[in-house]
Amino acid sequence: MIEGRIYNFSAGPSILPEEVLLKAQAELLNCEGSGMSVLEMSHRSKVFDDIIKAAEANMRKIMNIPDNYKVLFLQGGASGVFASLPMNLGNKNKVADYIVSGNFSGGALKEAKKYLDAREIATTKDVNFTRIPRQDELKLSPDADYVHVCWNNTIFGTKYQYIPDTGDVPLVADMSSSILSEPVDVTKFGMIYAGVQKNLAPAGMAIVIVREDLIGNAMQITPKIWDYKIMADKESMLNTPPCFPIYFVKLVTDYLMEQGGLAEMKRRNEEKAKILYDYLDSQDFFKAAAAKEDRSIMNVTFRTGDEALDAEFVKGQAARGFSNLKGHRLVGGMRASIYNAMPKEGVIALVEYMKEFAAEHQK
Ligand SMILES: *Cc1c(COP(=O)(O)O)cnc(C)c1O
User: Fold this and answer.
1) N or C: which end of the chain has fewer CB within 10 A?
2) Domain for residue 21, yes or no?
3) pLDDT of 345 strictly over 90
């Protein structure tokens, strides 16, 4: 780690690879010999055109995205997609199924209800979203235009361990907090999207990966900038795109490919998560918040069971060189977000702190 930096466990915007930050720093004043910063250049310039094309090509390569899928860079983050998805994919029967496994999937459902008959077809709200609904709990609508899921529940620390079988109905997944953390079979999804600020780039953009045959039938009311077909035809440049996040997508994917791609990310992420979960399972001072079978490898939630002790644990983080360990208010306790860029050493150091804290406070 570079002198002065700390282990940042933020859920988002979150840690980025130091190698990438250094590269961006080195190029900040003069990008690709253009004599100007990527922050200053026309999005119609040759230099930027090469950047956005490379960002898309890299995404296709690293995620193995088939040719019949479009890759879009859209403003508005994941929340922009909550709104634009029903307008774009829900204009056939105007019915959509939503599986509610946490706060963001609930937010997506609420937004969709403005535009169509959006149905909550399963939820684990009754257990405060500590687990993912199972296949046999899904009350799928035969006439749904799509089924929406949130793949990794950033706040609650759960993740799908199976791909829901939705028959012929396209599956749409919000992968904001797990994109590029491990390989996914894109062909199993009609659409995958992610706000980039969790595992990929600075805030200000969503990536949408959508099957070609699902677009081109947007509702009349759809703003042009959120019409996936128009944006696909314009290669995400109907208007000025979020240039800096796009540039980071290129740098981060370059870096991840150098590091061995998504299979290697999965190996590292599972290794890191295992260090934390193995410790959580080995003692009873801290309790893991999520059900064992649905645990996320990106966001690890835990608590002591005593709010005052949780607060003390969080308060002690700065002295250890950590930040952002406080859990979301909907869960309480602590949350360690351990995205791709979090080194294994950060997780080991966190477990050391947990051990010492437990020894000090165990009754
Ligand atoms: C952070 C997050 C969002 C919200 O993203 P915005 O870009 O802020 O709209 C949505 N879904 C998931 C899973 C997230 O982690």
Assistant:
1) C
2) no
3) yes
